[in-house]
Amino acid sequence: MFPLYDTIPSLRKPVVNYMIITVNVLVFLYELALFWNEELLQEFFYTFGFVPERMFYAFPVLQIFTHMFVHGGWSHIIGNMWFLKIFGDNVEDAMGHFKFFVFYITGGIFALFFHVVFNPFSPYPMVGASGAISAVMGAYFVLFYYSRIVSLVFFILPFIVEIPAVVYLFVWFLLQVLNGVFADVTGAGVAYWAHAGGFIYGVLVGMRIRRKRYWY
Questions:
Q1: Could you tell me the CA-to-CA distances from 52 to 88, 115, 117 in Å, in that order?
Q2: Which superkingdom, per the lineage (predicted)?
Q3: Is the pTM of this model over 0.85?
Q4: Could you read off the pLDDT of 142-166 as tens digits, one per residue?
Q5: Domains and CATH numbers, the chain
Q6: Which of 3, 6, 7, 168 is the most exposed place for a label (fewest CB within 10 A)?
Q7: Residue 28: C-alpha distances to residues 21, 43, 71, 136 (Å)
Q8: Reduced to 3 states, what is the DSSP secondary structure of residue 12?
Q9: What are phi and psi of 6, to 5 degrees?
Q10: Cβ count near 102 (within 10 Å)
């Protein structure tokens, strides 16, 4: 189920969402300049990605932030930015620009440490915005559960269908947990537990925002 767009237009221009997408793209363009030299590219990933096993001898403080702006390839950057474009604008609407930025960064950090809990000795650098974007999706799940996600579905032939957001995102979250349980335990490949952790963080923050709406 590949999402094409949601059915709720944003009320304000999502300037922070655009800014985050722009920074990610610019960093990836820099990475492209390193593609000709595999050694330099790997050094870039290990310098700015978060390597869990390094926590035991030199805690990588900078990489807590930088890892979420580094991507491993075209499909990685395009997929992440597309999901952020679809779900980020409405969540920014609900939170406001500054709070959305803080939420995005803290969601990425929470997702990172959720990944580390399950892969504390991994020697592989964790890179990508998917943990932070998963937090955005978790908040969307709570705040815009009534929305519908227009998606491209492949079943013999491709077709387009509207899926309730609450169903789409719940299935997505369930798949992350199942993949986390059964995927490679070395910590290489897709960081499914970061996705799950980010989503949980987004749900918790989204619930807090909903409660405030009802109180006032």
A1: 28, 9, 9
A2: Bacteria
A3: yes
A4: 999 999 999 998 877 788 999 999 9
A5: 2-215 (1.20.1540.10)
A6: 7
A7: 11, 15, 7, 21
A8: coil
A9: -105, 175
A10: 12
